[in-house]
Specification:
By secondary structure, this protein is an alpha/beta fold. About 40% of the residues lie in helices and about 10% in strands. It is globular and about 70 Å long. Bound molecules: pyridoxal-5'-phosphate. This is Pyridoxal-dependent decarboxylase.
Length: about 525
């Protein structure tokens, strides 16, 4: 009997020891220690103002480095090793695009406001998904507050519009177009394409330069890519108003019914703004849903100086607005607005008794799960709201104004450089241009830009992108970081020129054929 007792105790002790090991990662003191290590690393990262582009590591090399930081313990829970954690954070911070460096000029995701990152960290710890009020109470209330705050710049009556957050602009565009399709073709959700048999086929009209996420929706929604009506652009890369009605008439003659017209408020390639007010006129004439893809440029609405670029925004049926681009918050954070509240329920029509209440109470009325593709969704509004709550609108307006002013200034610099050409006048903070000294043949211009871009990327000081404008490649800068000055841009030009001249073999006067050479 006694033996039994002893054995039992021993088992308990063992269990407890095992339990202790198992509980270790949940220890709050360890949490503090790891956080402090991390914050110190990030502080150093943010304080580093050196000019860095992208230093690409071979995937195999990086994979080896990552594996070397993994525990080799397979049987037991490995002990906490703060040094290993520090090395992992170093590796993470060091690789990838350095968005906080003035060398970063190539993409649309932001150098974030550091406080926004802190709040994202809080979100990850408290882990309150925001699709349902009961799970994330503050995020849901704050979504409503932020919707009202931003709607002041759109201008809809406070009680009649709606806003939902989605994980990125691509998803917001898809959601809005689903709502548009279901609104104009009420049978489609249930019957699918059969709902339109014998009738005009559903189609969408877009600017020729529309973001690929919009044209993708045609495939996703079962409309078919062939039913995308591409509207020609003018010299400023905006939808050419003179050719909109003829294009829509031609579509109608082809047996299409355009139910949605998508205007870009800031195209991805050059940041051009389509004339929303005039497109709204056409949409109203023809009973077409007007969606504005403002993923990049809707943020200009918060600036008194720049808001006019979205003139007529109050006439749109829906608007995609990425806060992780020009509102400087961590990705993803997208706001999808609908002019009419009821329309926000059109995108999806489903019953699911485990989440959707038939008669929502005042709490469930705030649930957004019925309006988005996501079920579990990050409380992505929190970083945006906290920065807005702490510092107010002016922080955003002034940073956006600085970035747009800087882009106009560097455009002016380019105009004075005889060996460069600009591809457009910058309406926001995106600028495309080409290195094109007299000795480059027209047919080589395209290749030359691509080669220069690749070289600049490999050199690792500046990170820039490229895009075709009017069918010819151009170098593209996106000014997302307020640390960038004209001086940095002049350095970039010097680097481009040096690369370009090197590609020509340093012999510019003999009309070298440079484009095709490496
Ligand atoms: C970036 C962008 C998108 C895509 O948004 P994500 O948040 O990256 O999914 C869509 N449209 C435009 C105009 C964009 O610039």
């Amino acid at each position: 009997m006694a033996q039994f007792g002893v054995r039992e105790i021993r088992v308990n002790i063992q269990t407890e020891a095992a339990l202790t090991q198992w509980l270790k990662p949940f220890d709050v003191r360890l949490f503090r220690e790891s956080s402090e290590t991390t914050v110190a690393k990030l502080e150093k990262h943010l304080a580093d103002l050196s000019i860095k582009g992208l230093s690409l590591t071979e995937p195999a090399v990086l994979s080896r480095a990552a594996r070397a930081l993994m525990t080799t313990e397979r049987e037991h829970i490995a002990g906490h090793d703060e040094d290993r954690l520090a090395a992992i954070i170093d590796l993470y911070v060091r690789t990838g695009i350095q968005v906080h460096s003035p060398g970063y000029m190539g993409r649309q995701f932001s150098s974030t406001v550091p406080l926004a990152g802190v709040i994202d960290f809080v979100s990850s710890v408290v882990n309150q998904p925001s699709s349902f009020y009961e799970a994330g109470q503050l995020p849901n209330v704050v979504e409503k507050i932020m919707a009202d705050e931003l709607n002041r710049f759109i201008g809809w009556p406070p009680d009649s519009f709606a806003m939902v957050t989605t994980s990125g602009g691509s998803l917001a565009n898809l959601t809005a177009l689903l709502a548009a399709r279901n609104d104009r073709f009420p049978g489609f959700w249930t019957e699918g394409g059969a709902a339109c048999l014998g009738q005009a086929r559903p189609a969408i009209a877009v600017g020729d330069d529309v973001h690929y996420s919009v044209s993708r929706t045609a495939g996703v929604m079962g409309i078919g890519e062939a039913q995308i009506v591409r509207l020609p652009l003018n010299d400023e890369q905006q939808i050419d108003m003179d050719r909109v009605r003829p294009a829509l008439d031609a579509a109608e003659r082809r047996g299409l019914r355009v139910f949605c017209l998508v205007a870009s408020a800031g195209t991805t390639s050059v940041g051009a703004f389509d004339p929303i007010d005039r497109l709204a006129g056409v949409a109203a004439e023809r009973d077409i849903w007007l969606h504005v893809d403002g993923a990049h440029g809707a943020s200009l609405l918060v600036s008194d100086q720049l808001r006019h670029r979205l003139k007529g925004i109050e006439l749109a049926d829906s608007l995609t607005w990425d806060a992780h681009k020009m509102m400087f918050t961590p990705a993803p954070c997208t706001l999808l607005f609908y002019r009419e509240k009821d329309k926000s329920r059109r995108a999806f029509r489903q019953r699911a008794s485990y989440v959707f209440d038939e008669e929502p109470d005042s709490y469930a009325a705030l649930d957004s799960g019925g309006k988005t593709i996501e079920c579990t969704k990050r409380p992505m509004i929190m970083p945006l709201w906290v920065v807005w709550a702490m510092y107010g609108r002016a922080l955003f307006a002034e940073k956006i104004e600085y970035l747009c002013r800087l882009t106009r200034d560097v455009h002016r610099i380019l105009l004075a450089e005889p060996d460069f050409e600009t591809a457009h006048y910058p309406e926001s903070n995106i600028l495309c241009f080409r290195y094109r000294p007299g000795w480059v043949r027209d047919e080589d211009v395209h290749r030359l830009q691509v080669t220069i871009r690749d070289r600049i990327k490999l050199q690792g000081t500046f990170f820039i992108s490229k895009v075709d404008v009017g069918g010819v490649a151009a170098l593209r800068v996106v000014m997302m970081n307020h640390l960038i000055t004209e001086e940095h841009f002049r350095m970039l030009l010097a680097e481009i020129r040096a690369v370009g001249q090197e590609l020509s073999g340093g012999r510019q006067d003999d009309q070298q054929h440079v484009g095709g050479r490496r």
